[in-house]
Amino acid sequence: ENLDTDVYCFVCDENAARIDYEPSSWRALARIVHDKQVPGNHNTCVTTFAGVVATELQKIIAGRNPEPRMQ
Question: Which of 22, 63, 64, 69 is most buried, by CB atoms within 10 Å?
């Protein structure tokens, strides 16, 4: 485990069955790996389907506890 953080892995439909895009590859490097399959291919998942990715990112951000602020 090298990363002291969670990793969020978004994989497009087109690559979801490919072993080289398997989110498990990250598990040796991060304490927790979350994976989410999104519609489209490598390009369209962040263009045509950007709203899907944005919604998932909003859920991630909303679910995180804010770090205490130094004053």
Answer: 22
Length of the chain: 71
Q: Which amino acid is at 22?
A: E
Name the nearest CA neighbour of 36 among 54, 28, 1: 54
Give dist(CA 22, CA 35) in Å, integer.
9
Residue 14, number of CB atoms within 10 A of its CB:
15
Separation of alpha carbons 26 and 20, rounded Å: 11
Q: Is residue 67 over pLDDT 70?
A: no
Please tell me whether the overall predicted TM-score, pTM, comes out greater than 0.85 for this model. no
List, for residues 25-47, the tens digit of each pLDDT value.
888 899 889 999 999 999 999 99
Angle at 4 (CA atoms; ends 28, 23), nearest 5 degrees: 35
